[in-house]
Design brief:
It contains no helices and eleven strands. The chain has 124 residues and is mainly beta.
């Protein structure tokens, strides 16, 4: 069993930056692909970014490409989401997710483990 705990959310003005962290319990973290998803009020959960088990491959939603960077530190069991040039439309609860089967990608249903989420609010 893996538990994921996100942190780093908050209130920021448009154009600002935040770094989200997701710490995983369990010894298998380094073998998992990891992803970040977000859900705004009244909207479906959407893919933001993903990183493979080694950190050598990443994937981003078009809406965040060039502004967000996903990274991981397997020694610290942590995955990060660096968010720059934030926009009001980035406002959402951000969840990290773990994919032990390494199917990977943008589809939420392939991720077996989920954190509770951290709120990001971007004011205009």
């Amino acid at each position: 069993q893996v538990q994921l705990v996100e942190s780093g959310g908050g209130l920021v003005q448009a154009g600002g930056s935040l770094r989200l962290s997701c710490v995983a319990s369990g010894r298998s973290f380094s073998g998992y692909n990891m992803g970040w998803f977000r859900q705004a009020p009244g909207k479906e959960r959407e893919f933001v970014a993903a990183i493979n088990w080694s950190g050598g491959s990443t994937n981003y939603a078009d809406s965040v490409k060039g502004r967000f960077t996903i990274s991981r530190d397997n020694a610290k069991n942590t995955v990060y989401l660096h968010m720059n040039s934030l926009k009001p439309e980035d406002t959402a609860v951000y969840h990290c997710a773990g994919d032990p089967l390494r199917v990977g990608g943008t589809r939420a249903y392939v991720y077996a483990y989920w954190g509770q989420g951290t709120q990001v609010t971007v004011s205009s």
